[in-house]
Every structure is written in structure tokens, then in C-alpha cells.
Amino acid sequence: MRIAIDIDSTLHPYWDQFSGAAARRFGVELPYEGQLTWRVPQLEPEQLQAVIEDTHRDEAILAAEPYPGAVEAIARWHAEGHWIHITSHRADRAHAATADWLERIDLPHHDLHCSYDKISRCRELEIEVLIDDSPVNLARARDAGIVPATIVHPWNRELSAEQDVVCGRDWPELAAALAPLLAAAARARPGLGSSQVGRTAAP
């Protein structure tokens, strides 16, 4: 299958960085369990942008540690021949540091895209599964015929409860939930492993 995987709050616990930056810069406390929507009304728009920029500095990107089990699951999918697209709403200037981070954590992938056109890019690449934390992206993916999958967070818990969203409380649980879907794809495409391993560009 062609799998797209978000980074912040999907590959690593971004909220720790985000809330820490908000507290340092503006004295605003943003407890994780209290973040029940995708909005952050405690911050003014310019403050929100400043916090995002702070957490997407090269040093912040490179300091992130992946969720337990994330790299192992993705490496297994890659070895099985699934096509891995890493996607993020990070600005393009964060691309180089993000690529360096993926290399540092030894996460195999075929493509990396940092831009704000995540869903349209997924459609161009004929992505079949999107793993993302944003309820907006998950709903848009579903509308585009892409299977939405996520790690459950307070801000996407309501959407995660819907039957057509594949979810898990952590990466091992999410990988287990996706296993039947990936296995069915492998059975449907017997040459998946040999034909897609090593692929480095979109068709």
C-alpha cells in the first residue's frame, strides 16, 4: 500500500515541545488533556505562529524523539514493500532538518514532503492510508477516499471513535489495527514486496 505518515504528534510527542514553547515565550499553560479541539484559543494568532516557528527550528526538530514502536512499525512496512511517504505541514524551510532527523532516527521512507497542501499531495501520490493526528486532515482524507488512521489524542478522540477511522492509543496498537488492511493489500498484490522496495520517487 501507499502510506502517508504525519510527523508532529504522530511520529513524536510534539505537544510537549509546543506547550513548553508557549509557557516559555508567553506564560501560557496548555495541558495536554485539556486540548479538546484542534484550535488553541489561549494564544493570539501571532503568538501561535511564533510558537510553531519556535518548535520548527532546526535544533528543535533534531531533538525530537519518536514514539516507542513508531520506527519499528514503519521499518517493517517498508521491508514488506509498502511505499512510505512522510508528510508535514511544516514550512519548506524545515525540509532539510526534517530529512536529517529521519536519518538520525533511522526511519526508512521513499518520499518527504513539507508543505501546507498535504491532502492534495496525497491525492497526487495516490496515497491509500494517511496516519495523522489532525481531525481536519483525517476527515479530508476520508472524503478523498483515503483510509484515515491516527494515534488517539484529546483533540481527535471524538473522530477516532468513528468506525471508519483506524486508531490506537500508541504505535504498537495502531500497527496492530492496521495489520489486517496491509495484509489484505499484500494478498491482492503478490508482487508488492519485490516491486516497491527501494522506490524513491512518486510515479
Overview of the structural elements:
The chain has 203 residues and is α/β, with parallel strands linked by helices. Helices cover 46% and strands 12% of the residues. The chain contains 10 helices and 6 strands. The protein has helices spanning 14-26, 45-55, 58-63, 70-79, 95-104, 118-124, 135-143, 157-160, 171-188, 192-196; strands at 2-5, 83-88, 111-114, 129-131, 147-151, 166-168. A 6-stranded parallel β-sheet has the order 3-2-1-4-5-6, with helices on both faces. The relative contact order is 0.17. Residues 193-203 have low confidence and may be disordered.
Number of strands: 6
- What would you call the shape? globular
Q: What is the helix tally?
A: 10
Rounded to the nearest angstrom, the distance between the terminal CA atoms is 14 Å
Q: How would you describe this structure in keywords?
A:
globular, single chain, 6-stranded parallel β-sheet, 12% strand, 6 strands, 203 residues, alpha/beta, disordered C terminus
TL;DR?
By secondary structure, the chain is of the alpha/beta class. Strand 4, helix 7 and strand 5 form a beta-alpha-beta unit. The two termini are 14 Å apart.
